[in-house]
Every structure is written in C-alpha cells, then in structure tokens.
Amino acid sequence: MSTSKTKPEKNGVAKGSNVPSVMTRAFTSNSSWPDKDEFLDVIYWGRQVLGLILGLVWGFIPLKGFIGLFLFCVINAAVIYFYASSFQGIDEEEFGGMWELTKEGFVTSFAGFLVMWIILYSGLHYD
Fold it and tell me: 85: Cβ–Cβ under 8 A, 6 or more apart, which residues?
C-alpha cells in the first residue's frame, strides 16, 4: 500500500504544486491563468465588490438619476477593461473578446449597485 502525499483538487491541480492561489494571481500583475474559468471568476467577483463600493459612494454623495446610472456603467466597464488588458495583460481573444469580459457578471453587479445605492440614499437623504 502506497499513499500519495498530494491530493488532486477539483480543478486537477495538486495541493503540493507551485501554482499560486487565485487571490495571489488576482493581485499580481501579468499573472499566468492556466484555467480560464478562474480568471472569469476573478472578473465576476471583482465586479460584485466594485458594484457595492460604487453604490456606497453614490449613496453618500448623493448622486441621483441617469447621471449615476451612466457613470456606474462607464466606470465599471473601464475598470474591468483596464484590469484585464493593462494590469493582467491577458489576450482578449482567449476569452472570446473584450466584450465577453465586459459583460461577465455585469447584471448582478448592477443589481447589487442599485440595492446599495437606493438603500443608502433613501436612508441618508430622504426626508
């Protein structure tokens, strides 16, 4: 009976290997992404955090109306584009083009943004 010291994880990478964690690669410039789904997960969850932060900011400012919605869309798309192309330096065509990266998690991010913005604005600025 021989036992193995490294057990494969669900994505096929052994625990004892030298592959950095997803969080480490997410905050390291020009990281290698052997599994495309991991990078898309980073984009998705990054958008969720960005949506909540922008909702907080818009609620405190108090920003309202179409300007707030438009600024959210522009800032959200610009931050993700900059992160993917400049910070991570990925080839957009490997992920289906920049449009695919731009829409990854946008709707759920928008929903979280709206909930945070409406609750905070209503609580702080509504008489």
Answer: 92, 98
